């Protein structure tokens, strides 16, 4: 686009505000977006209630919302064994086709085992070593990342129960990350995006805002230079996708 | 737990399962959790005999949940070691899976799981995979294809699955999986080597026909219709041509009303042709449906026509088609559709709208401003390339954008003035009603459905169901999309970053959706690109300007690069679950990508020499040549071909890759300079020579098509190839039962004898044997072929061709579908361009082909032809019958055989072998004209070789000279002479005579005395629209006079007088007015000589 057209198309600040106000999004679209968020994030009951209250004509049964939630909770609680069972129940292909996720889950399980062993009276680590030998070791040679992760984890056996290394591994964020991986993979397999539409929209809006600021910086406008209003979306910092 | 404990546990489980206890479910669940993701455990359980009881439970158990669990375990096994699949196949799993596909009796979940399993097996058993451990793969997948297409019941079940009407998630997934199964089985290519694995596998054309006959195509169209209805409901602006700013409340009300009013169809719609389908469920995905439709309709006029039969189709999209043409500025609605705030929000991926429609609007504005005649390029600023939706906040400001901008800039320039396209039907037919919807669909949604929409649009262009303007629009919309997709895309899902990811990483992280998406783009887009630009030099240029060539070259390089994956780890440690499959799939993907990209390059280099040079400049030639050699051989190529080497399938890259490589080399070898330099440097002759004897016939055909170019007289490879024994191999090929093989081998032999040494010519001729040549030249077929046709005829009569739409399946017997040899079944008849392509009746029986009354029309079914990717330039003419093709090649063979000086001995040998009279009659037959009364406007069609006679030259029914008396026709009525042979064949015959006449005096005299009728017939050729044929007549006269021979006064005079008798003076006089100056001048000289030597100067014919 030439600079002349850019100048022409650049709205004055007031126009901009007015234009924003003029947009009247359809309530249906908004409701759908909320619904989409609830489903994607796994809030089953809320989704069902919301569908009823907003009178959304959705006869589709969103199977799996609750299961996904349960799986996520189990992983976050460190109950990897039941999580794997539930994953196999919901989507039997996932762990067969996604060795990365399976490895991560097994590693979490190993960490839990090590914790248990360390905490037990004798500190017998045999169950942990057996588990690692049987389930993790055969997978490691295929991938350097696996190998490193396994070695790191096995080092934990040497540490005391309250060592900083172990507590780092015990950090909830590790479980959370893997729980999200699993949730995304389950959603993807179900033909749904792992990202709620609303997040995408927010990102788009943030991007447009940035672009506009860039244009504004590059184009000289006659008259006082008013910056574009900030994009206050009323969402927590971490929810916004910063670029 | 020790290994021994594991074994005991496993044995206990298996024992429990073998007892078929009623409460097997819990045991199965335990086993499932033991096995999923655990390769070693799977191996242990299989060794201990898990599979037979498992399959038994899957088939027979009373508890449905137990059966489901069993199916899940079977699915997990399929993802493991390929050996498991063998065991499963031996246990009869495939039949059992098909037995659980009846939607009326089978549990929906179990049915879905069965469909998934079938697809999974096909996914994994692609013929690309050829490691020794999975030699069972092709067997399992061929068995699926066999079982599906040989039992009516199975096809009916698939149909019933597709017809289910529901919002139920399971059933929606069933429909998706059924569509995938159709796509995979239709496109399944058995490359095991001449069908050795499964000799009775129905051909692709036969499979497609079965699907059409049983209504599967209609059901798929109906399903697709659901998406149109849904789009129309949700985005009416797409269908009105202008954006309707609908009041949000009004829209809500309307939507609610519509959802209340929509009739819930129980069971399935009785008549999918007349009832508009209900809107598709939001959970349903469009791409599998489109892909299945494409698989059935690709390159088939008949099936594409059938696809448009539904009456509701035209009602759905009644009036917006023409709104999309660049000339009309009514595009706001479409423009809106590209914006992310509208459709984009609902689309599930970050696939950026291309805003291409917006570009049309810009273009229109430009046109209006400058007028179409303005070609001032400076007036066309590059339109702002669209801004991609940011992915994870990153912006794309790479050079790709700049290149893209160049591309688009050029594009605009090329479009004003618009393309000139002579080849598309003008007028009446307005194109498929689906085109506008598909165009809209190619800009929104996930990339699978976008690519499928683009693929379908490309197919419409190829089969001619588009308006004259559509290709231009497609060029504008689709080509940039494709090129951009290939380039890794700006913001496309997958993107270039992951494309360059290291294989180990991809494999060990599992093949997730993103990877699959990217693979799908890279494997599919180049093929669509190839199909789109194949016949169109403008589009080739535009694609190249968009840097498509470098991109494709990169894909070829990457795809053919040998990578050692996790296999390199300790071979004694079995790979973890998923890794085996993932590795196979990854290698498979790379080869598919290389194949597709090579096809794309071959299409780009189809016509222009400079494009061929560009391909060479990308530096991929060494990789391509390596791909044609046995796997693992990387050393220098032997200079001289070795005739003794015969390779096995396993030694070589997969057939598809070899075929694509041959296609590319063939495209390049059309350039003499490349042939003499770059291809010679690569010693292309050696690997190619080995491919000539490859076990797979399609590879042999592909290699033969390249050899055609390499044995031409100017090729430096002619000598080495001939010495290595190419003649023997070609002579063997020429007797093949495969028509493509015959034609191409004959073609190559024709080139071999051209300007060859006498002994080579004689060897070719002797190897072919006169009897064989005679028979084939006369009938275009050999005796065994006649039998073939016969059985085909019977077959047409027997197999449910007559079954009406919506046949009563309950009454239909559950018998096998019977296939006889269907080599010829995909013959399609093309008609005049002016006709509505959807009015055509296509399939013609071979018997019709044989009858003289039907002009030979033959379409090399491009899906089976070796040169599917690229057309030989000789193929671009309207297609002819196979018999016509082979006759043309044989006539060309004689022409080349006799060419050059001092070939008297050879000509005499041939005449002796055939008998002069027979040989002359053969030539006469090929050029004999027929006179035809003009038909009424509506019915008439112009034959390619038809000649409209000037009214003052009416025609007699006997083969006299032009201008003989003619009775009983009104002066103004124009009669036409028609030829049964194509102009190409006639050309070959004319020059065969020219070459004979150029030989010794003895032969000239022989011609004039024994071939008078032939010489007379030749004078008819002055009316030919083909310049070289008319010129040939002059050459015949010239050579017959024998100007250069000095001491020949007596016989020459006699000859010339005969020639005058045969009507040559009159004919030559006609040619004095020829449009071609060269012909006029030659004619003047010939006429002068003829008159001089005939002994009179101003006398016409007697």
From TrEMBL, chain A:
Report domain CTLH positions. 67-121
* Function comment: Involved in the proteasome-dependent degradation of fructose-1,6-bisphosphatase.
Query: What species does this protein belong to?
Result: Ascobolus immersus RN42
**Spans traversing the lipid bilayer:** none
Q: What is this protein called?
A: CTLH domain-containing protein
Family matches, as Pfam families: CTLH, LisH
From TrEMBL, chain B:
Chief localization:
cytoplasm
Basic and acidic residues compositional bias: what residue ranges? 785-796
Domain of life of the source: Eukaryota
Q: Where is the composition biased (Acidic residues)?
A: 805-819
Give me the Gene Ontology terms describing cellular component. cytoplasm; GID complex; nucleus
**Biological-process GO terms, alphabetical:** proteasome-mediated ubiquitin-dependent protein catabolic process
Transit peptide recorded as keyword: no
Q: Which UniProt keywords apply?
A: Cytoplasm, Nucleus, Repeat
Region of interest: Disordered: 371-398, 785-819, 935-969
Segments of skewed composition (Polar residues): 375-385, 955-968
Query: What InterPro entries would the database entry show?
Result: ARM-like, ARM-type_fold, Armadillo, ARMC8/Vid28
Q: Could you tell me where this protein is found in the cell?
A: Cytoplasm; Nucleus
Q: What is this protein called?
A: ARM repeat-containing protein
